[in-house]
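To make this tangible, this section ends with a sequence with its structure tokens:
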Amino acid sequence: MKTRYRLTRRGIRGDKFYCVDTTTGKRTSLGTINEDEARQIVEARNNSERQGVGTDNGIATRTW
């Protein structure tokens, strides 16, 4: 499976790391200059895409 987000670095912007969405082409700043931290953020975004969203049909009728 191809990953949705990838990591880039912009030297022009103070060597900050950016996350690029490969489906939309949108680039967002990760707010860090630490490469390990940036990789973890991008990995987490890609993992969340792979897992998807589950639903709970009984939430409206459940009594806590």
About this structure: The chain has a mean pLDDT of 88.
